[in-house]
Amino acid sequence: MTLQMEKVAGSASKATGGTFAALRVPNFRLFLGGQIVSLCGTWMQTIALGWLVLSLGASGTALGLVTAAQFLPVLFFGPYGGLLADRTDRRRLLICTQVGSGLAALALGILDLTGTAQLWMVGVAAALIGLCNAIDNPARQSFVQEMVGPEHLPNAVTLNSVAINAARIVGPAIAGVVIVLAGTAGCFLINAASFGAVLFALHRMDISALYDHPPIHRAPGQLRAGFAYVRRTPALRVPLVMMVMIGTLSYEFQVVLPLLARETFGGTAATYSLMTSAMGAGAVVGGLLVARRRRIGPRALSLTAMTFGVILLLAAAAPTLPLEIATMVLLGATSVAFISTGNATVQLSADPAMRGRVMALWSVAFLGTTPVGGPIAGWVAQAFGARAGLLLAAGAAIGAALYAFGSLRATAVKGMAVKGMAMKGTAMKGTRPDPGRLSPIRPRVPPRRG
């Protein structure tokens, strides 16, 4: 491994243990509480948005276009959002994105409540939400380290993933009740209000307890510099390439699982809901288990991707619905393990001045690839069966793991050659090698504000 890869593993090994270690940090505890409320509202809006589009008489194709409208801004504007996160105060930037997303949700609620909603209006609102997400995602993910520091970062990332999947279970359940009682407009209005929880948390934070993040000054070529930095840094390049492969073809569950439930097992919407809930439950349990880990890094990420791929193979081969549901639990656990491990690996490997741009690329790889991978996965599942869609997902995950193993091996061989040349050159000068030049680099803990 390179020194930077060793740095990631070394920093994680020093992390304080415990499933909920990051919750000892008051700022993160406050922020996560607001996130949970807001995420439940977001999942409510996700259910309501699809229902509203269909209730307007639109087709499944139109529903796909509205969904794409939410993700395309992440694909095209995500890198600029990351640059903005590096240039500005991330806490203030998050306040702006929460207000913007809340206003978009409020507009959807008013349009729906007054009966004036049209498909193009819904599409515009979805695109505005996507634009806010393109800025919010890199800022929010980078802000986590400002709250907890490198010591608790892996645990904080995992707990955030657990919160997302817990909301994935609770939010749709609440949405079902609200739609019956108040219609889809009720979900939009509740989601608009839920952003207030995050705004409250950001306002009440102890700013002096945040780790320092001096914004970079505006200069030409900073976006290109971010791409170049990732390209020449294996500890960043390998996880991001893995995320592109897996994010494009392995995380298209919203496309494959409905077909698996209906076509393969002859089920209904309730069957699909059960599969989704099983994945969410597995993700919560798996996330809590992963939160106790003490080491991360590219090698751990490779093993996680391989395990994820094997579980996808089992899901493709499950002969009965009960076995499929059980496999979905394992699938949820391994999927959240890959996401949280990759996220923490990338954050710990990134230079603080580049972290916003790096996390923007991570968001693009994860969310921005949906408009590309969704149609591919849907076509394969429709043409060859839902099991073929799962096989495609498994192939992408296993392929990503093999790519990572090969890259790690090549980097290790190159690193050994460089070290050997350095030691040989030092010996020729008649001096002993300096251990500090060859030892793993430890991450510098940034000072706290104030």
TrEMBL record:
Keyword Membrane: yes
One Gene Ontology term of the molecular function aspect: transmembrane transporter activity
Top-level taxon of origin: Bacteria
GO cellular component: plasma membrane
The organism's taxonomic lineage, starting at the top: Bacteria, Bacillati, Actinomycetota, Actinomycetes, Frankiales
Subcellular location: Cell membrane
Keyword match Thylakoid: no
Segments forming domain Major facilitator superfamily (MFS) profile: 19-412
Annotated segments matching region Disordered: 424-450
Entries under CDD domains matching the protein: MFS_MefA_like
SUPFAM superfamilies: MFS general substrate transporter
Protein's recorded name: Major facilitator superfamily MFS_1
Membrane topology label: Multi-pass membrane protein
Keyword set, alphabetical order: Cell membrane, Membrane, Transmembrane, Transmembrane helix, Transport
Source organism (scientific name): Frankia casuarinae (strain DSM 45818 / CECT 9043 / HFP020203 / CcI3)
TM ranges: 30-54, 60-81, 93-111, 181-202, 240-260, 272-291, 300-319, 325-346, 358-380, 386-406
